[in-house]
C-alpha cells in the first residue's frame, strides 16, 4: 500500500524536479531533446546540462550541485552511455545521492538491454576495457563506476526498442508528474490542521487493494469536505472526468470506465438520484477504482451503501486561532495587545474553517472599534448555525457601517 506523503509546509521543494543524465552524442538532439521539452511543457522543472560543460572526463562542479538540488534523476541509458567517463562519474554521484539522501532514480533503457548493463557484457564490457586501460592507476574509480551502473540497472524503468517514441515520452512525463504530486502535494500554509484529516481519509481509501471502493466525506457546510477531496485528488495519480449532465454521465461511466482504474470525485452531492446516475453499479468500474463523494447528508450515503464515511471535525483551539490570525493579520504575527485579546473570541466560530476565514478576512485591516462591534454582534446570535450567523451578522454590520459613513 502506498503511504501518504507529509503535507506540512516544512517540506521544501528542490530547485529542480528532474536531472537528466544522458550521452549527448547519442540522444541530445532526438529522444532526450523531446523528453526535455515534454517535461518542461508539463511544468516539471528539469536540468539538462550545457554541451559546453562536457570538456573532459571529470564531472563539472555545476553538475554535482544540480544533482544535489534535484528531486530525481532520469538516466537515459543509450548504446554508448558506458563509453563516457563523464556519464559514469555523473551516474556515481547520482547513486551516492540516492543512497545518502533519498534521491529518486528512474532509468530509461533506450535500445539497450538492462541485463548487459547489470552484467556488464557486450558493448559495456568493451567500454570498461577502455576505461581500465586509461585509468590503470585508479582502480577505485573504475569499481565505483561498475557498482553504480549495476545498481541502477537493477531498478525497474522504461524500455524503448523500436516503439512509439511520442507515446513513450508521454507515459514517462505522466508517471513522473504523478510521483511529484505524491511527494509535493499542493498544501498551502493557510490550510491549517489539514494533515491529520488528510491522513485519516487516506487510510480509508485503501490504495493498492484490488476492489472498487466508494468513500463518503460528510459534514456541515464550511468544515472542509471539498478541500479534503481536492487535496486527495492532487496527491493520488488520477484521471479527471467532468460530467455536466447526470444522464450523460451515466452513459460515459458505464461505457468508457469499465476497463480503466480511475479516481472519481463527486463534490457536494445532495440528491440520491444523481449519485445513482453517476456511480451506478460497481461493475461499471475497473478493479482498483476509487469514488469519493462529499455531501452534508449522511443518510444519502447510507442509503447508497457506500463502503465507509469520513466525518471531518472542527479545528482544535490552537489551530483555529492560527487560521484566524492568518486571515485577520495577513500572516502569523500580531502586534497590538488589544487585538490579541480580541482574537481569543474565535471560539464563536466554533472551529469551523470557513467561518474562521470569513471572520478573519472581514476583520483584516479594520480598527479596534470595528473588531469589538463585530464580535459583539456575533455573540448576540451565537445560538444560531455558525456559518450563517457569521455571514448574516457581518453583512448586517457592513450595512450599518455604510449608513454611518
Automatic annotation (TrEMBL):
For the keyword Lyase, the answer is no
Gene3D superfamilies for this protein: Helical domain of apoptotic protease-activating factors (1.10.8.430), P-loop containing nucleotide triphosphate hydrolases (3.40.50.300), Toll/interleukin-1 receptor homology (TIR) domain (3.40.50.10140)
**Keywords, in A-Z order:** Coiled coil, NAD
GO terms of molecular function: ADP binding
Signal peptide boundaries:
none
The residues forming a coiled coil are 121-148
Stretches assigned to the TIR domain? 14-180
Provide an example Pfam family for this protein.
TIR
Q: Which GO terms describe its biological process?
A: defense response; signal transduction
Instruction: Give the PANTHER family listed for this entry.
Output: DISEASE RESISTANCE PROTEIN CHL1 (PTHR11017:SF559), LEUCINE-RICH REPEAT-CONTAINING PROTEIN (PTHR11017)
Q: What name goes with this protein?
A: TIR domain-containing protein
Gene source species: Gossypium barbadense
